[in-house]
Amino acid sequence: MTDTTAVIRASHLDLTFQTADGPVHALKDVSLDIEKGSFVSFIGPSGCGKTTFLRCIAALEHPTGGSLTVNGMTPDEARRARAYGYVFQAAGLYPWRTIGRNIALPLEIMGFSKAEQAERVKRVLELVELSGFEKKFPWQLSGGMQQRASIARALAFDADILLMDEPFGALDEIVRDRLNEELLKLWAKTEKTIGFVTHSIPEAVYLSTHIVVMSPRPGRITDVIVSPLPKERPLDIRDSPEFIEVAHRVREGLRAGYEE
């Protein structure tokens, strides 16, 4: 995936953590370009560096080798420029704040006026289909609704890039399917560039324009699959020969990573 329109560009990226038990080589020679408006999923076994790579993009971890740019800037510069929103595995909502005030929190920190905060909160609540829930508290919402609120918070300041670290991993399959459908609609409406970490092969294939398959630690890219599926994807596309063929290639890539 190499293109001059790349908004995220990694070149020969390495990251080694220094621990009390010795160095841990988390990422090795990772080179990847992520194009504007694409939906890129990262899949691989636990500990393969999927989340670590996402955290490097967000300047939450710092590579020990190679280069990484976000919108032509260093990840630290991109963080200060508020180039991305980040959705964690857990919704991370403050229980003492209403849903509306949770979503408004980054806007408060960034100094938006009360009127602008209210307008943005209203807009993103509509985007994630939570209109009317702004005065509820997190404990009054289901797990799936809490995650939608978390996504709304990440969208509130309208960054072009959305980074998502297994946001639906703890949800049951029925809720997960519904949120996958909603996320695709949201992506179509907003045209964000999305980086998405998952352990689920069907989820990766269903959501993505590109699927990045990673090896066991040290994390390397073993395959980058360009999806042949159309942008409009009803859930039953998962029964199609094209979907099954891509899922098979992902599975083969994961297996090859173990055998290298």
Automatic annotation (TrEMBL):
<keyword id="KW-0067">ATP-binding</keyword>
<dbReference type="GO" id="GO:0005524">
    <property type="term" value="F:ATP binding"/>
</dbReference>
<comment type="similarity">
    <text>Belongs to the ABC transporter superfamily.</text>
</comment>
<protein>
    <submittedName>
        <fullName>NitT/TauT family transport system ATP-binding protein</fullName>
    </submittedName>
</protein>
<dbReference type="InterPro" id="IPR050166">
    <property type="entry name" value="ABC_transporter_ATP-bind"/>
</dbReference>
<dbReference type="GO" id="GO:0016887">
    <property type="term" value="F:ATP hydrolysis activity"/>
</dbReference>
<dbReference type="InterPro" id="IPR003593">
    <property type="entry name" value="AAA+_ATPase"/>
</dbReference>
<dbReference type="InterPro" id="IPR003439">
    <property type="entry name" value="ABC_transporter-like_ATP-bd"/>
</dbReference>
<keyword id="KW-0813">Transport</keyword>
<dbReference type="Pfam" id="PF00005">
    <property type="entry name" value="ABC_tran"/>
</dbReference>
<keyword id="KW-0547">Nucleotide-binding</keyword>
<dbReference type="InterPro" id="IPR027417">
    <property type="entry name" value="P-loop_NTPase"/>
</dbReference>
<feature type="domain" description="ABC transporter">
    <location>
        <begin position="8"/>
        <end position="237"/>
    </location>
</feature>
<dbReference type="InterPro" id="IPR017871">
    <property type="entry name" value="ABC_transporter-like_CS"/>
</dbReference>
